[in-house]
């Protein structure tokens, strides 16, 4: 019997795409299906160790820009290829247009339920409906089910932590003779970020112990901050700009714990199956953005009536106080200590 061919669409932020990994990996394995994932080229390393998954990266700046560019993309995807299903895990204007073309061609299409009304009720100021919204990964799985491929979400581990790092990476990390922790202090939106002055107290504490700290981030501004922290704390090493995304994941797989915000790095740590301590401010796990399956996760957060005030952390604090991030660094330190002890 011929293999099934499934086109999966998911652009957007790193964390959103990272959460697709366990789901598409399980579909490919369970149905022996060929999956083509339409996403950003930068995210391809997330799928490089998985079988039967190919990443296709459109050029939305030029070749595939606008309505006619999407028509061109559709023609490229259809050329010499019969699709058994199109699975839209994003549901934005661009993907609506693309899947419309596939519908007209008679291809089966399934679209994610983003639970927009429930998220609105969760984040509204008054009469907040404070309850768990279905996990995003469950909604990914439900979309595959509607496409005819029911699947159970199971955790994956992209790299074997018993596999030694290459000599090139050991030149950066050194041989492992102590506990290793990773710290990713940044998030896309400031209301999701723990104050840097408080984060530095966490770094200072572990730098005084027999612990090596790896700092994760990207972009010039973040890199400059991380280099500054590295220069101040003897056991801290900034990885920003030193290694590729794929090698960041390889190093991450050897950590004993990862400290993150509600950010993409939280999901990356789940993909290499290490303990995670995540700090939550304006957002909340109830919005569904936790990775399922990793029982080593711990969320640090304050229980406030105003939380969450937004789904993605992209709105400023309407009180102007950012009190949701008034978390004592000692609470975070103790959570990490528990993970690495």
Please state roughly what percent of the residues sit in beta strands, choosing from under 5%, 5-15%, 15-25%, 25-35%, 35-45% or over 45%: 5-15%
**Strand count:** 11
Order of helices and strands: EHHEEHEHEHHHEHEHEHEHEEH
The total of helices stands at: 12
Global morphology:
globular
- Tell me, rounded to a whole number, the average pLDDT: 94
Strand order of the largest sheet: 8-7-6-9-10-11
SSE-based structural type: alpha/beta
- Computed CA radius of gyration, to the nearest angstrom: 21 Å
Cα end-to-end separation: 51 Å
Task: Outline the biggest β-sheet.
Answer: 6 strands, parallel
Low-confidence stretches: none
Helicity level: 25-40%
Explain this structure:
- There is one protein chain.
- By secondary structure, this protein is an alpha/beta fold.
- The protein has twelve helices and eleven strands.
- The chain has helices spanning 14-18, 21-31, 66-78, 93-104, 116-123, 136-146, 167-173, 196-207, 220-232, 245-252, 264-271, 329-340; strands at 5-9, 34-38, 53-56, 85-88, 109-111, 179-184, 211-215, 236-238, 257-261, 276-279, 297-300.
- The strands form two sheets. The protein has a six-stranded parallel beta sheet, with helices on both faces.
- The radius of gyration is 21 Å and the shape is globular.
- The protein starts with a strand and ends with a helix.
């Amino acid at each position: 019997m011929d293999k099934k061919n499934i086109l999966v669409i998911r652009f957007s932020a790193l964390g959103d795409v990272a959460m697709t990994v366990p789901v598409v990996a399980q579909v490919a394995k369970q149905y022996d299906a060929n999956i083509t994932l339409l996403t950003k080229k930068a995210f391809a390393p997330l799928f490089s160790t998985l079988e039967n998954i190919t990443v296709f990266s459109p050029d939305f700046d030029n070749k595939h820009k606008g309505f006619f560019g999407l028509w061109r993309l559709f023609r490229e995807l259809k050329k010499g290829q019969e699709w058994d299903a199109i699975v839209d895990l994003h549901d934005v204007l661009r993907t609506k247009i693309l899947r419309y073309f596939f519908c007209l061609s008679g291809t089966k299409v399934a679209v994610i339920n983003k639970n927009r009304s429930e998220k609105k009720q969760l984040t509204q100021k008054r009469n907040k409906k404070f309850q768990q919204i279905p996990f995003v990964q469950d909604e990914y799985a439900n979309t595959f089910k509607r496409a005819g491929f029911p699947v159970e979400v199971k955790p994956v581990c992209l790299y074997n932590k018993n596999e030694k790092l290459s000599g090139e990476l050991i030149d950066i990390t050194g041989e492992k003779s102590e506990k290793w922790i990773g710290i990713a202090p940044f998030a896309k939106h400031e209301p999701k970020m723990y104050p840097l002055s408080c984060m530095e107290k966490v770094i200072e504490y572990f730098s005084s112990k027999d612990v090596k700290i790896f700092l994760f981030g990207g972009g010039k501004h973040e890199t400059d901050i991380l280099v500054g922290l590295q220069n101040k704390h003897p056991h801290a090493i900034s990885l920003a700009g030193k290694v590729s995304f794929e090698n960041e994941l390889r190093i991450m797989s050897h950590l004993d714990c990862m400290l993150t915000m509600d950010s993409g790095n939280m999901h990356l740590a789940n993909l290499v199956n290490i303990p995670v301590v995540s700090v939550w401010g304006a957002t909340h796990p109830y919005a569904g953005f936790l990775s399922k399956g990793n029982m080593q996760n711990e969320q640090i957060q304050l229980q406030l009536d105003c939380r969450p005030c937004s789904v993605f952390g992209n709105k400023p604090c309407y009180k102007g106080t950012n009190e949701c991030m008034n978390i004592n660094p000692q609470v975070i330190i103790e959570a990490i200590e528990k993970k690495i002890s």
